[in-house]
Structure formats: structure tokens, C-alpha cells
Amino acid sequence: MPRYRIDIEYDGGPxxxxxxxxxxxxVQEAIENAIAAFSGEEVTIRGAGRTDAGVxxxxxxxxxxxxxxxxxxxxxxxxxxxLNLASEAVSILRAAPVAxxxxxxxxxxxxxxxxxxxNRRSPLALERGRAWHVAxxxxxxxxxxxxxxxxxxxxxxxxxxxxxxxxxxxxxLDRLDVTRLGEEIEIRASARSFLHNQVRSxxxxxxxxxxxxWTADDVQVALExxxxxxxxxxxxxxxxxxxxxxxxxxxxxxx
Length: 255
What we know:
There is one protein chain. The protein is globular. The chain has 2 domains: 3-106, Alpha-Beta Plaits, CATH 3.30.70; 109-243, 2-Layer Sandwich (Alpha-Beta Plaits), CATH 3.30.70. The protein is an alpha+beta fold. The chain has helices at residues 27-39, 72-85, 140-147, 198-210, 216-225; strands at residues 3-10, 46-47, 56-65, 90-98, 108-119, 132-134, 152-155, 170-181, 184-191, 240-247. The model is unreliable at 251-255 (pLDDT under 50). A hairpin with an 8-residue loop joins strand 2 and strand 3 (56-65). Strands 1, 2, 3, 4, 5, 6, 7, 8, 9 and 10 form a 10-stranded mixed beta sheet that branches. Helix 1 crosses helix 2 (72-85).
């Protein structure tokens, strides 16, 4: 059966998250409904990551199989047409045929996230639901310096949701950078994979550094505690974006 990869953009606000859930609307369900509407086939798609409710994506990746061959542009355009008809906040950026061994989740070599903090006194109007509004001035340089204590291979139990289903809390964090751009603070994180709520937990902890209530040493102590109770507050979901997923190659098929 021909396998297709799709790259997806979505506003996470209207959804209960990526993963299909009984009684709640999800991004996965929205796309599967669109596939059924254009192809007549009921399929289950696999995503590169399970974003939580309220989390956005600039380029999520998923794959699925159909019983017949379709042109890539037809898949993209047909899905977008049905998503638009259903008033979904989801857009298919690209579609491509891929080899049978391509897996959106397990073939991924890196995932890149962005967290946006709107650091200004005035409340948000246009960016409401798309950034974490923090009125108190944050020290982005101190946040960045503390973030470097977290880069590398560590036991991230402190920054892991109690509901996380990963087999091990040990992960290698390749990048955790904090930069200020005017009234916005960007936190960019990269790793092969992340634990449930890991990025939001890291951001909430770094915010404590930015406001001066924690130091970089406090972050180090929290990491080494390997205790969820040692974590700072979990940042809200609306500031988090799945930016990109890397693969060794596209593993494109010939059809």
C-alpha cells in the first residue's frame, strides 16, 4: 500500500491535543476525517509527536497509507479542502509519497520546539492564546546561563510529567537557548525526543530564574534531585510550538 508523509501546521487552541481521544476533538481526528472524506478510506495516522491541548505546530509530521496511488499535490489540496469545509484550524503544508519503512515517529532524528513569552506590562490582544504573557521584566541572559546547566544527557525526572509513559527519564538535550527580541523572549529546545511536559517544565523553571527567585545553582539542584516536586511551575501550553522534525532523509518513494 502506498505510504504518504504530510507536514502539518495547526493552532492547538481548539483541540484536546494531537492524539485522538474519546469524546474530545483532536488534530489527529480532524485529519483522519479529512482523509476519509476525500479517499473514502478510514485510516489511522501516526504523528512525530503527541502535542498537548493548546500546543501549536509549525511543522508537525505524520504518515499514513492508502489503498491506491494519489498525486502528492492532490493529497495536500484535497485534505486542505475538507479541513477548510470543516472549519478546522489545521493546514497541510506538504504531502509526499515515502518508502514503506518511513515512520513519522520512529524515523525522526531530532525535534525542535519554540516557547514564546510575551514579556510586557500590557495584556495580549492579537497574540492571546499564542504566547505566555508575563508582565514582570525577565532577565533573559540569566535564564540562558541557567539553561546551559540542563543541556546534555541527564535524568530529567524532575522535569517529567507524572503521567509520562516513556520507559526512561534519561534524555539528551542538544539545545536550550533563551534570547530576547524586544518584548518577546524565545526559548528554543532541540533533542531527539522529549519527555511528556519536559519543555514546559523547563520553561517554567527558567522563568523563576528570570524573575530573580531562583539562580542557576537552584536549577542544578532541581535537576539533580530527580524529583518532580523540585520542579518550578509548568508553563502554560499556549506558548509552545513544535517547529520542525528532522529525518536522515525523506525516504521518498518513486510512485
